[in-house]
Amino acid sequence: MLQTNVLEYLEASAARVPDKVAFADKENSFTFSQLQRAAQGLGTALAELTPRHNAPVCVLVERTAATLAAFQGVLYAGNFYVPIDSQMPLARMERIFETLSPAALVYPAALEGAARALSRFCPALELEAGLAHPADGEELARRRAMVLDTDPVYVIFTSGSTGTPKGIVICHRSVIDFVEWLAQAGEFSDRDVLGNQAPFYFDLSVKDIYLTLKCGATTHIIPQNLFLFPLPLVRFLEEKGVTALVWATSAFHLLAASGALEKEAPTHLRTAILGGEALQAKHLNRWRRALPQVRYINLYGPTEVTVDCTWYPIDREFADTEMVPIGRACANKEVFLLDGEGKPVPPGQPGEICVRGMGLAKGYYGQWDKTRESFVQDPRNPWYPDLIYRTGDLAVMDETGLLTFLSRADGQIKHMGYRIELGEIEATLSGIPSIREVACLFDRERDKILCIYTGGEETGEVAKAARAMLPRYMVPNVYHRREEMPHNPNGKIHRVQLKEEYLHEDSQPV
């Protein structure tokens, strides 16, 4: 029977292993049957709250199992969920809500204050009350029947170059396509125990969520504070019997650099899947020395292609200074390189990574111009509509078809595992009244964002304002105040000169 909705993963596992724990946080857990009942209750409450289907429902997320029940509840209501980082500044939340015009907001009781501030945009439903609501099977079936596999399952917002966040729309079929492949490629089963690291507003977490639901596995949500204490983190993985890590590369690097793996290593681990930024061989090698039996897989892909589009099972030794390939295309996706004129590049020459296939997002929610810029007709195919996504990332392909990531082609960067438009940081900071001009640079070698500005505020005050206006991962690490900003003959900020001045000096974070 054709699968058309990701809810079928939950329902199949609830029928097969009803009493097995699906998701657990430090205080609570849901078995598969409990998760299904709670999600159906929330879905019914949402259906009563709003008559719309295939509409966005925002969820204020915490690192809890209840947050994951909320996502499934939104789907039961025939809608799609939009994870909202509850720690982001209110002004950014409001921009997202203005873009979405959501049908409803689901919030945990602990975040009632934030929900109250957003209640002018849409009706709000307390999560705990929704999960306890009686389910109406007839209404849920009616809603379910209106949803196709090409309808959205979630929208995840990422940075936008104009200062407006971009909402990337991913459909059921794309998630099903990806998860079916990943479960097979990673050899996942109901015996696996995953240790979740990725925040639930970050698309990397899609792998933890839907691998668990498809395979009948168990996911333990790792307390965030443990990433500050490497040895207790390793002991947590051992205590929970974690067999698989699907982590942001930055977290993988952090644990390797801490030296904890040389002291203690999680003995149950069999698979480590990394993604989100370039994998550094020196950190990979520390993991491999400590855990040589583990299978390591490097993944690459922007949110717009449904999490990942290439994979590379680590199959050889790498010197600490070598670049680790991003590999070859995942199943049912084509990944190829084009030059600036849209022509294929030969092996050994750099080109822009382009992707086609079922994993492509439907576009950016409410942003048609931005969608048309990035999702374009395949220049190799003049005969019928055939969209590709141009990633803006540069790579090189060898004679065997193996891809190695090189860099970004524009102002978008990867920092702490997140794709960030420097333009959005600049647009936000330019709203500080005393700042006249602002330019942001990325020091890739040190993984630091630099803010150069002209204006009256001292760097400490600008840093304080930035922390109040931007998500944590977008806040600049280093600040420089200038009397005047250099400009090129066209009157634009002279970024080349700024890079020459600032990217090679020792700057102190603020």
Structure, described:
The model is unreliable at 506-510 (pLDDT under 50). Helices cover 32% and strands 26% of the residues. It is globular and about 65 Å long. The chain has a five-stranded mixed β-sheet with strand order 11-12-13-14-15. Strands 16, 17, 19, 20 and 21 form a five-stranded antiparallel β-sheet that branches. The protein has 510 residues and is α/β, with parallel strands linked by helices. The chain has a domain at 415-502: 2-Layer Sandwich (GMP Synthetase, Chain A, domain 3). The chain starts with 6 loop residues before the first helix and ends in an 8-residue tail after the last helix. Helix 1 runs antiparallel to helix 2 (32-49), helix 2 packs across helix 7 and helix 11 (249-258) packs across helix 12. The chain contains 16 helices and 26 strands.
Looking at the structure, the CATH topology of the domain at 415-502 is GMP Synthetase, Chain A, domain 3
Report strand %. 25-35%
CATH C-level class of the domain at 415-502: Alpha Beta
Query: Any idea what the radius of gyration is?
Result: 23 Å
CATH superfamily of the domain at 415-502: ANL, C-terminal domain
E-strand count: 26
Shape: globular
Architecture per CATH nomenclature, i.e. the level-2 architecture of the domain at 415-502:
2-Layer Sandwich
Strands side by side in the biggest sheet: 11-12-13-14-15
What structural category do the secondary elements indicate?
A: alpha/beta
Which percent range fits the helix content? 25-40%
User: So how many helices?
Assistant: 16
The N- to C-terminal Cα distance equals 57 Å
Q: Unreliable runs, pLDDT <50, ≥5 residues?
A: 506-510
- Largest β-sheet summary: 5 strands, mixed
